[in-house]
Amino acid sequence: METQEHPYGKAVATLIEEFGHLPGIGRKSAERLANHILACTVAEANALADAIRNVKTSVKRCSMCFNLTEDTLCRICRDPRRDQHVVCVVEQPKDVVALESSGAFSGLYHVLGGRIAPLEGVGPEDLTIHQLVHRIRKQGITELVMATNPTLEGDGTALYITNLLQNDKVRITRLARGIASGSVLEFANREMLADALRGRQQF
To answer: How much is the pTM?
Structure first.
């Protein structure tokens, strides 16, 4: 978004431009955010600015799983109650948050930092795949749960990792996919039904 002459001056135009760089924020939304900043108190504006500066200086990647943390290790990796032999592989830190909210997983995580996407110039070397393989071979991991997104790139990334570990003694599973609770079979597509059948569990 280019800086344009604004009735309130260059400072407001620059603020709108910066808000416009945020994902999912168009021109109108950027203007609304800028107007909100103009309307709030100096203390409120400074609190927002301080929060942004603080998160950029204090938040880093966990040295083990690459989740977001303010310490060397994230709280999940530090928790002795977690199953140290099961690792769930996800694309982004937000996926850890989503899975943790389910309360159904008690192991550890590994954040890849994305997925292999050749058309976007993202290769295996751009992700934390090497570090994942090292973890598995050095820490006695017995199960790897592939929880990459169910997309062409996500499935391709999971397949790439699986092939790398085909000679290692680690059990590789993936999240079951298919019919969501409360849905009707007739409205499910073929891929959903196939995944539901392959991922069936003991009743």
So the answer is: 0.80
